[in-house]
Amino acid sequence: MIRSFFNFFEKYKIILFFFLTLISIVSLGKAFYQAQLISFDFHFSPTKLVADGINHYEYILDGNHDDGPNDKIMYDQNGVYAQGLFVILIPFTYLGWDNAKLVWSILNIILAILIPIFLCKKFNLSKFQTLLIVNLFLISTVFRIHIGYGQQTLFTLFFLILPFVSNSKLSIIFSGISFFKFNIGYALFLYFLSLRKVKNIILSTVPCIIGWLLYCLITDTNIIKNLFQPLQLLLFWDDEKAFPVTVFSLLKNIKNFPQILTLIIPLILNFIIIIYIKNFSDNLYKLSILCLSALAFMPHQIHDYVLLVPLLIFSIKNFDKDISKINILFIFYFFYFLRIFSLIYETQPWEFPYGLFGYFNNLLTISVISLNLFLYKDDRLKN
Asked: In whole angstroms, how far apart are CA 49 and each of 3, 60, 225, 382?
């Protein structure tokens, strides 16, 4: 079915590209409009506190985020990211809320177009394949939710991909900006572990260290105390609200399942992934698998499934392989089908990382990782 679709696409590509581009423009316009109305997840208010010399971690941990009239935190901007993100975002606070979310949404849209084009060029995809991938992404539900909610995932993804396309020290250092959002930086950490390059891990922590020290300087906070505050805040929110389903929470909720195994099994699975991918020379494949791993082992909302873009590029490039058809069905499920399910079940797409759908999505992701590990054969496989 998928092959027939792409054969049809190839035959009538000019007409289909015209309609796809029209749909993309409508989708992009809707996302941009939503961003001006919403942008709830753009962490403007915690950054404003930092710019004013207030430690936002302490502000929230002390119970000041109560949604009351004097609450300085807007919406659900929970501030769980690393210190460096708030330092980087400080210039936006001088624009005011309305102008800041306008500029941020434009930046997000640029990144949404730039990232797939950049990866396609680096991994030698044709112009036809590149245009197809960009359009398929721009019409996806995850794209519109990401832009509309003012998320930071595309921003961190841009830095995550750098060491997969360049071995320079500068790329390795800047890739550490992905650690600002811990559930994205997780993929980078696994990648450097697979390379067995401790030096790369150390170099990639430079942005986090600089961000941490600047944060402490701006907010006049003790550096040792502040070092652990992002973790404290993460655990605080974990107690307050349900997190999306991960491999860990999936195992944890199995009745009478030994608690020690909920820690050991994810570690073993990650070890298998690291050992397996180190033998492959295809960096696009590695990036795709590690982004999938981040989605399976770390808590993610539906907007974080923009991490499937590398897998989409890999699958279009290697469309002749059977695993690519499976991957595309998997991607289409998150990009488009969840929106259909949300209409059928009268719910919202961002609710799907939770409950029964959350468990199903997590098991599905683990299954796709397993299939890719065992079915894909790299022509340049290392001995």
From this structure: 53, 11, 18, 51
pTM of the model: 0.92
Residue matched to tokens 């058809």:
325
Sign of CA dihedral 249, 289, 184, 148: negative
- Tell me which residues of the chain have a pLDDT lower than 70: 1-11, 238-243, 345-354, 378-383
Radius of gyration of the chain (CA): 21
Closest to 82 (Cα-Cα) out of 188, 215, 172, 203: 215
CB 283 within 8 A of CB 162: no
CA–CA dist 113, 375 (Å, integer): 30
pLDDT at position 223? 96
pLDDT at 345: 66
Q: Which whole-number Å values give the CA distances from 222 to 70, 212, 216, 233, in the listed order?
A: 26, 11, 7, 16
pLDDT at 382: 47
Q: Which residues contact 272 (CB under 8 A, 6 or more apart)?
A: 373
The overall longest dimension of the chain from CA atoms, in Å, is 64
